[in-house]
Amino acid sequence: MVVQNEMDKLNLKVKNIKLGEVILEKKLTVEQKNNITNSLELLGFEIIDDKKGRIIEKIKNLIIEAVHHQNNNAKSNLSNLLSNNLQHDYNYLSNLFSEVEGTTIEKYYIAQKIEKVKELLVYDELSLSEIAFRLNYSSVAYLSNQFKKVTGLTPSHFKKIRDDKRKPLDEV
């Protein structure tokens, strides 16, 4: 909505808009491109105009979508998900991602999963077993080991620290 509003303010006709991508009806002039860049940067957005950068953003968006917004019910593997959606060989995507981001797709995916685990732990609505199942971990032990490897804490210790920082509502 924010990006759509900025496009409207600049009188630019949008053909299609979705997370990380805007397709306009007409090619931009240099002045229009500068105006968009400036207005979106003020809002914390960044224009990615090169092909490699767009592919990297699409990889990130697909991973974020898979981990954070679909409860990971689809048991498809990551390489198939990315290859099928981006129409590129996974080896090409993996090498490109590593070259540009300085980390692997797998490490980025794991980091997103751990962030989702943290979020679910803080909400305190699911047991660790349910979280492991929801995020397609083979076991609670595997989730716990990966969580500790990434954060330095066990899930239960993370949860305890978070709970200790919370104040009861009557003390807020």
Automatic annotation (TrEMBL):
Keywords: DNA-binding, Transcription, Transcription regulation. SMART domains: HTH_ARAC. This is AraC family transcriptional regulator. One of its GO terms (molecular function) is sequence-specific DNA binding. InterPro entries: Homeodomain-like_sf (IPR009057), HTH_AraC (IPR018060), HTH_AraC-typ_CS (IPR018062). Pfam families: HTH_18 (PF12833). Residues 57-161 form the HTH araC/xylS-type domain.
